[in-house]
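User: Here's a chain of 467 residues. Predict its fold as tokens.
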Amino acid sequence: MTSLHSDALVFFGATGDLAYKKIFPSLQAMVKRGHLNVPVVGVAKAGWSLDQLRARAKDSLEKHGGLDPAAFEKLIGLLRYVDGDYQDPATFAALRNRLKDAKRPAHYLAIPPVLFETVVQHLSDSNCGRGARVIVEKPFGHDLASAQELNRVLLSVFDEGDIFRIDHYLGKRAVNNVMAFRFANTFVESFWNRNFIESVEITMAEDFGVQGRGGFYDQTGTIRDVVQNHLFQVLCNLAMEPPVRSDSESLRDEKAKVLRAIPPVEEKNLVRGQFLGYLQENGVAKDSQTETFAALKLEVNSWRWKDVPFYIRAGKSLPTTCTEIVAKFHKPPTVIPDSELVENHLRLRLSPEITIAMGMMNLSPNAEGMALQTGEMVATHSPRADEMDAYERVLGAAMAGDSTLFAREDYVEEAWRIVEPVLKKNTPVYQYAPNTWGPDEVARVTPPGGWSNPNEKKAFAVASEAA
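Assistant: Prediction complete.
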């Protein structure tokens, strides 16, 4: 793998929904920051002209993120277009002509996975893949076997170092802030282990449903959509050991070690739910058993985390939209009766704002003796409007050849290994009412002391940084 920057960006699926909502706004932002000054070639089968693609880009920016006239003019000056069938070698011959003298193109496959093998093979046959990088949009398969087949297809043409598997969650600054919190602060290491931590919870809640994507979601479900990828990435940032070097491979080595230490999920440690009304969504089978909620318990059998349960909970139509981590501490051996104590906790909120909070007990202000109350010390930061979007960050990193924010082959296969046994079994799906925290059966997979629901915390001291 060369460290030279890509000298062209090709994105397949240029007329699609992902390009419309995410890619064009990210490309404009990259141009505005001076991070993109190479040809951008859109490829699709839409019967369009370049002017129509430019119009689509303008409409995208007006509706998603805002049009910057100067940056947009530069972007459309870089924009090229190839219209053609992905099955047709002539499409890739035309692409080769559009690339002209480019020797290190980056090919971004924002297309359905069923087309990956066809496109990759044509890239090879047309010499468009020579010296190139390939950027693959998730999902990376739908189970272990399909992930292994996808890796076989990609590796038949590209070296592993030139394959960039996008999980845009790794482009979110808040997710990487977990590692900064752990490894840039000396005091954290003293308690971040099984001697002090009783349990760890990761919650990703959304207060909306499938938003018209019933056909896609019914083939996917919560475990495949966000648990096996997004939330496992968060878990690895929490549980990994400090890398011995700062290069991408050392970092990804430690993440893969975390997954290797996790046994497959057992049926007893999983509860799946489906919100009432899901079966009436367009594209959803009337007898669907797809989960819109999942709660699971995992073990990380490493020296640091042996016997500390990790709980993951994710779902749609929950009471709020928020991603949050809560680590509960063991209760102290104190003269104060245990029944009066509540576990201390560390709370890390990743979205919508970034929060670090320490939950502890203190004396109640107007009570006598040792009457206690709980509260938090909170530091919070609201993202600024000019902060990089996740897609802007990951596309820029891929073009620069930096693999840090991307999933490696072994990581992807280990993640599927963990969830595959329960995906292949017909575990029950329980109904739950919208605006609740899942079905009643979730009590079976619940941390000691119960789940910590976001937005139910009380702060007694706050330090904040405004947007």
